[in-house]
Amino acid sequence: MTHIGGRRGRFNPRPAPHPLRRLARRAIQNAFRPRCILMYHAVVPDGTRPRLWSQVEISTFEAQIRYLARTRPVVRARQMADPASPETLPPGCVAVTFDDGYQNNLDLALPVLERHGVSATVFVTAGLVGSKALLWPDQVYERWLGTGEDEGTGLAEAYAFVRYLKTLPDARRQEVLARKLSRRGGVPVAGQDHPRRLLDRVSLKRLADSPWIEVGSHGLTHALLTRVPPDRAREELCASRRLLQHLIGQPVDLVAYPDGAWNGAIAAMARAAGYRAGFTTRFERIRSGFDPLAIPRYPVGGDLDRRAFAQLLAGLLEVRARVRGSFPRILCHQGDR
Q1: Residue 143: what pLDDT?
Q2: What H or E segment, with its residue span, contains residue 181?
Q3: pTM score, two decimals?
Q4: Which of 210, 276, 288, 319 is the least buried, fewest Cβ under 10 Å from its Cβ?
Q5: Are residue 143 and residue 100 in the same domain, yes or no?
Q6: 157 class by beta-carbon count within 10 Å (0-12 exposed, 13-18 middle, 19+ buried)
Q7: CB atoms < 10 A from the CB of 219, how many?
Q8: Would you say residue 26 has pLDDT above 80?
Q9: Within 10 Å of residue 289's Cβ, how many Cβ atoms?
Q10: Which residues pair with 57 in a beta bridge?
Q11: Quick one: 209 and 143 in the same domain?
Q12: Which CATH number goes with the domain that contains 55?
């Protein structure tokens, strides 16, 4: 059949692309649609102050999840944890996770996830469920930024102090923090409306019962596992798993290491404690041959605008981080992870 007006006839379709061209196209798509796991923390009402990196405003979060649901296949973190996932899951698939276990994960984040049909895994600090205590980094932010100081200056000082505390052995960290807090009004607690209040037992069960949510462990007390003695690290992993399983009545076999603090010994402890997957804060996409007890994630902070979020999903911020040898400034204040 001849071509008319430059068009191919119905029975003479365009020839299939050369196999090498198909491979090249797939390689380009994979390069800019990496399989990745997103790491959120708190979702807060618009205008919440102070503007911490780990707080994403609700309108921003809704826009991100809407964009994600429209542009990428979304799977569960559990599916990503399968070492065979790079070959078995859809190209460009993404999973969503939350660290710490804030009340706003239920109150604000879950309705957004439900509206857009996106599932997520919430890693909960098991020993603080139902407590009015703030996580120790949040205690710093509360006292440093609640004293009438300039927010910019206060944030910089708070982030710097948290970074310093993370370098200390856990016992020394507690000592230094207690001394500093005593000079700034004592240890703060979370009121009913505090944006970084942790889940209570009823809220945790409601969250775990949602078909869109899976609960994992984030340790017992948010201790950095590489900064505590081995017996304490083992207890953080084992006791948190037992407690969460008791509270939600479901198996728990996923763990996110607090602050991403892990090494080979910690991964071995996690495996021995019954976890099938461990998640870090290492800023990388999911690649073939990854260690299921050291899974990387992309951090999502409150300073990511729409364009930067698209760049994050495209892997461009990961590339920038590799070139610079550190997190891009827009992505993460190292004291707030």
Answers
A1: 92
A2: helix 170-182
A3: 0.87
A4: 288
A5: no
A6: middle
A7: 29
A8: no
A9: 6
A10: 44
A11: no
A12: 3.20.20.370
